[in-house]
Amino acid sequence: MSETAPIFNRVLLTNDDGYDAPGLKILEQAVATLAREVWVVAPAEDQSGTSHSLSLHEPLRVHHKGERRFAVRGTPGDCVAVAVGHLMEDARPDLVLSGVNRGANLGTETVFSGTVGAAMTSMLVGVPAIALSQAFTDRESVPWNTALEHAPNVIRQLAALGWDSDACLNVNFPAIPAKDVGPIRMTSQGAGVLQGVDVIARRDPRELDYYWLKLSRAPREDAADSETVSLRAGHVTVTPLKFERTHEHALSGLRSRHLAGEQKTSDDPTF
Fold it and tell me: Region labeled Disordered — which residues (predicted)?
């Protein structure tokens, strides 16, 4: 098959930065030759940090922006649900692509990411999904061309490889020029750089208090096979993610202590 031939019939694009975000435009350009139909269903406004949340207590307003283009007053998860369950119900998409996010999504940060949340929601409704994010060192000078040049090849390779239905893929592009990017690496999820959440208190002109939440970040050491280490080394990283989050070591410890407690209770007549 030609490298320019479409490999999908329908692809759905969404994001968490909003309908007018530059990363969404980059993604649309990147997949133009990959699918016969490209649908865009994205939040009307910035929904960064909304994770997998769904709007269950208020109606969703969907604005038709053009052929196969919609802006939803809701979260990235809402966008996927409305697109797959209604707007595209005649023929579900072959793939959902979420991004390209402004900034990497690594480690713990993926729990909060609306970009990743949209991909996870897609997995929930039975459509394969990839989240894509572009790392940067200067917010005012994001190397979007890196994602633009490398995303088509990355998506083609991943489609050819395939992946488990209970996983979505988290792709990060390094914060370097496209020409300097190293080979794709399949990586484990790292610890990332998220350290906590800071609360910034302010007072408005009417003497009423208000607050901003700010994510605090700092470099950490990480495992050699982690996405963080490979991304810093200039590679495109691909990490499979899933819903199941059991901490096996903690579970083993709890079971052992619980069984020991039950044994003590049965052996001690004072209980």
Answer: 252-271
pTM of the predicted protein model: 0.92
The pLDDT score that the predictor gives to residue 269 is 63
Contact 60, 67 (CB under 8 A): no
C-alpha span between 3 and 242 (Å, rounded): 30
Contact 29, 13 (CB under 8 A): no
Residue 101 counted as an annotated binding residue: yes
Q: What is the mean pLDDT of the chain?
A: 95
pLDDT tens per residue across span 164-216: 999 999 999 999 999 999 999 999 998 888 889 999 999 999 999 999 999 89
**Do residues 121 and 143 make contact, with C-beta atoms less than 8 angstroms apart?**
no
The domains found in the chain, sorted by start residue, are 8-192+221-246 (3.40.1210.10)
For helices 22-30 and 144-161, the axis angle rounded to 10 degrees is: 50
**What is the amino acid identity at position 154?**
V
Backbone angles phi, psi at 238, to 5 degrees: -130, 120
Tell whether 153 is in a known binding site: no
